[in-house]
Write a structure and sequence with these properties.
The structure is a homodimer of 288-residue chains.
Chain A lengths: L1 E9 L8 E15 L4 E6 L11 H10 L4 E7 L9 H12 L5 H8 L3 H9 L2 E7 L2 E7 L6 E7 L5 H6 L4 E3 H19 L15 H4 L6 H10 L4 E4 L6 E5 L4 H14 L4 E6 L7 E2 L8
Parallel strand pairs in A: 3-4
Antiparallel strand pairs in A: 1-2, 1-12, 2-4, 2-5, 5-6, 7-10, 7-11, 9-10
């Protein structure tokens, strides 16, 4: 069986641990019967751990109940950059292994239900946990929006990104995020209403700056380069720019120039949102 | 000049101090030149303070810069029940006095920007304060949704309702509300996706129960009576039920029965959302 799932940007500023946006970069997992476990990987993350410790193997063995599997992973999604590569991998591996609930499996084993939701459903999603299960809704997304992802050549494991966050916060900061999330969802539903303040956040982005000190200046460069709004992609270090129709190439060039000017090795890509999410059985053709 | 504005339910569960929904109950303010200040009031709140301390007088005098005004207020919105009567009054009074910015005036003098946003714009709104100014967006609202408001015959001033809230909260509680708000906005955009968990909240509703101990049982009765979801309306004591198309009368009867069974004097009304917001110069006909 073969399955593919899109990358995703989670959080989107105010929607911490909740919102995610599926992006047109894919990971594909193919699983066939074998006499013993074989793991092969191509593309992004290739060769990092081609054995039973590979997330695709953990997920597939969990679903199948045995390890007599040949697993092939092909990926366009950079690893540990905040683009949801592990969630997309877990979702695709669970589906390719025959799971009827790839979202639940991915959330349980990989632990990123927000990214996994976007990888399964596509588009703009909101996820939360209700009585131990992931509940996902799809929110209105203006199909004309374009996006630029700035991808620094450094990894930022989600775990250390999360340890930087305080356990207690002021009530006013929680209200701040609720208000910005309302603005953001209105702007993502109709780009004409998107304002740069819509991605402001007080729950995570500022606490993570010590892990990536150039982030504020790079976000400012994305806005100066023409983005409607910009935010961290997941726990970073990738940064996401939300762009008006027809402007993503201009913003991408500004992003690339900003990386060079600030001497941050990395790349910037222009992408559209993915609207299909997980696809089982016909996905090979989607890899670019 | 004459202006009218709708009632509103703010918060809607998770969207504390942010979301509000305009409802088809109106307040109307008429202002004419006079030799000295005259305040008349009819309907809900009539005669409570027909003098310079009336909110309509404070707002109109602020806007006009003098008090040579005859102000008539006609209202269908119960006072101090959590239905945004003061915000609707402030908005209508500011507009009737000729203000070009009724929202800003109402937020400054009355202090409820979330309710005022819905009273000005109509429909489902999200408000936040950016650099001291109220910023409002309108969010997708399924026009087929119906609503029931349960209005206990007791007042619950917003000030004491707010003093019950803690200044610091757990980060997980903030995330909880963001996740529920995502669910709620998806369900208000399309009622088929509305689940009862979408109005759950950890920032305000539970802290306010001591001020209105019957609230949890009444909310449960609204859901048992057929509501898709139920929540406090603003700071209470009114409670709002969000209902599937064609079910509001059934839910209203269940609400009325629950009030009687629990010996809470009050009434329940079925209403639709208002989609027009503030109307200047032609509003007299809208009062029921």
């Amino acid at each position: 069986m073969i399955a593919s799932a899109p990358a995703s940007s989670a959080n989107l500023g105010p929607g911490f641990d909740t919102l995610a946006l599926a992006l047109e970069r894919y990971i594909e997992v193919e699983i066939e019967p074998a006499s013993h476990l074989i793991v092969r990987s191509e593309g992004e993350g290739a060769g990092l751990s081609d054995n039973a410790t590979h997330l695709a193997a953990k997920v597939a063995v969990d679903v199948a109940g045995h390890d007599r599997l040949a697993i092939t992973v092909r990926s366009e999604i950079p690893v540990a950059r905040g683009m949801g590569s592990s969630a997309a991998l877990a979702v695709a591996a669970a589906a390719a292994a025959g799971s009827p609930d790839p979202l639940g499996v991915a959330a349980r084993i990989d632990g990123h239900p927000d990214n996994a939701a976007a990888s399964v459903v596509g588009g703009l999603t909101s996820a939360c946990i209700i009585k131990g299960s992931v509940r996902v809704v799809r929110l209105p997304l203006d199909e004309r929006l374009e996006f630029v992802v700035m991808i620094p050549e450094r990894t930022l494991p989600t775990k250390s990104a999360r340890q930087a966050l305080p356990e207690q916060i002021g009530r006013e900061d929680a209200i701040f995020n609720l208000g910005r999330m309302g603005m953001l969802l209105a702007g993502l539903a109709d780009h004409r209403f998107l304002a740069k303040e819509a991605t402001q956040d007080r729950l995570h982005q500022n606490y993570r700056i010590p892990l990536f000190p150039e982030a504020p200046d790079l976000l400012a460069a994305l806005e100066a380069g023409g983005a409607l709004a910009a935010c961290w992609s997941g726990a970073g270090p990738s940064l996401l720019a939300i762009c008006e129709p027809g402007t993503s190439e201009k913003v991408r060039l500004a992003a690339q120039a900003a990386l060079e000017e600030m001497k941050v090795p990395g790349t910037a890509i222009a992408v559209k949102a993915d609207h299909r999410g997980l696809v089982v059985g016909e996905s090979a053709r989607r890899l670019h």
